[in-house]
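User: Hello, can you help with two protein structures?

Assistant: Certainly.
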Amino acid sequence: MLDVRRLRLLRELARRGTIAAVAEALSFSPSAVSQQLAALEREAGLPLLERTGRRVRLTPAGQHLVGHAEAVLERLEQADADLAEARQGLAGALRIGAFPTATRAIVPAALVTLARRHPRLEPMVCETDPAAVAHALRAGDLDVALVHEYDFVPEPHEPGLDTEPLYSESMYLASPAGAGPDPGPDQGAVLRAHRDTPWITATPGTLCHAMTVRACQAAGFSPRVRHQVDEFPTVLALVAAGQGVAVVPQLGVDRSAGCEGSGVTLTRLPMQRRTKIAFRSGAGGHPAVAAFGVAVREAVPPELTPPGR
């Protein structure tokens, strides 16, 4: 009989490529991961791994087994959801991941609703960039999370995860007041008007950083990045100080203190950021995950666009 814990390790190896990366993600030692994978090969009765330098490649049999592992792990999530539904009331920890603007503008109201409806449930919020959510969910560090995608940075397919749409929001170019004439409604023209201006982006490796860089590239230039800041109120403060321009989402504008009249001009761009609820495949029916979904939908501000619009 194949050990499901070892199947989980094999799936993570297929995603991460090295024993060391799997060990770091799942809080094991590399030797422990190697030992467990060797035991899985003995259980399977044929080689599952091929080593090429520091990296490990799955054999065709190993790749095939990963597909079965995805199905097995999804069914286990469904079983856990069924058992949770059979118990009386929701209780215990619910580990929630959310990016900063959602953590500030939406999650607190959702937590109030959860506390009122399910007082024995213990939601635990961890601020997590969407780029890191998939690994955290598969590793079991999170149970549910809010993630986003942009027009220029679509959501990649992540095996073992499912998502549900939550809302969409507009995007704006933030520039110092009086920085130049209005170039018109064309997005490319709006961005190209600042091709020689310093830019303020999020830190590399985040979706927000990739969005700004790709939007500028689509307009025909690469941005000259001066500052790298993740917090939108700080970004807007830097814009107001004449330190550059930036692309910011609607929640980053609406919820930022001192934005109006602070020396920042906001130009709406014909692009959007779309936020979704993410969870492990099979876990969508878990009562705690479903309860969070209901609560967070009720917490979405009315000025944001519902899914499908």
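That covers the first. Now for the second protein you mentioned:
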Amino acid sequence: MKFSVDRAVLLKALTHVQSVVERRNTIPILANVMIEANSAGALKLTATDMEIAVVEDIVGVTVARAGRTTAPASTLYEIIRNLPEGARVEFDHGGGDGPLTLRSGRFNTSLAVLSVDDFPSMTEGRMPVQFSIAAGVLRDLIDRTRFAISTEETRYYLNGIYIHATESEGQPVLRAVATDGHRLARVELPLPEGAKAMPGVIIPRKTVNEIRKLAEEIRDENEIKVLLSDTKVQFALGTVTLTSKLIDGTFPEYERVIPRGNDKKLVVPRKDFADAVKRVAAISSEKSRPVKLSLGTNHLRVSAASPDQGEAQEDLEGDDVAYTSGALEIGFQARYLADITDLVQDKLEFLFSDGAAPTIVRDASRPEALFVLMPMRV
């Protein structure tokens, strides 16, 4: 195998594929990226950790001799990243166990390779469900749910976003849900064509984060193709294809934890509320940083207390604070409130039952997203 390629083109592709490689693993081949050059002037890079595989196709490569091999992903990435801008990089591999030679200007190196026969494949298998979703829509769906993904490995079925086809108010929707037991995020969008027969699937946290990074690089209106089976999901974004295993587990019946009778409504400006929470929470040295919300007619007091630091409070009132349902006190973790306020555009809508029951939070201008917060004692 022998080819040459622009440094910038190769670096972009390596940035995508090497991010799934685990720095520490017990299987040496998983630390490598597979490099395939064909006679048509195309290059394919593949990396996997056996849970996720990322493949990127590069065209416009000068290929003198077709072939394929594997090389250490992180080492190759660091070499290419530190080459000067505008550099041209030449690769030469004689085959077998011989080293891969890399040259660029006055720099040259030889990298040890491992057999391509040992490199695992994750992209095989039938994907019966196929649909497309705009990149901007997918980014928004991920952003408004992934903060609630659980990091508790013993409840592995909560370590991802649950996506399924269902109905909402008589209309078919694609629904994404994440929860860690303390909070829940649920987002809906019109069901894409082709998604009606999809199974309910749990997409792992690492996959969610990787696809979010890839989706950031393409325009909002560009379509991302999604392919699904009972065990795998695949996302095709232009020249990049990400394939991932799904979490093999049953997502809990989340509808049971969404309260139905919360009739005490508070509407408050997002920025004013978020700033007040940050200011009063600074007084607390506790990891959870609890804050208390005390409500009266068109009035909200945000407060916190610390045995070491003292007390802090801030009052919000006026035309922008709407609440008429009687006195109420309730506490939440400041971080949990901040995670939600960061996603709201203008006004927050809280729906309470009492000071000990789960609370519903919405973006007043975007009702397709719903968040549930469990209160805490303060």
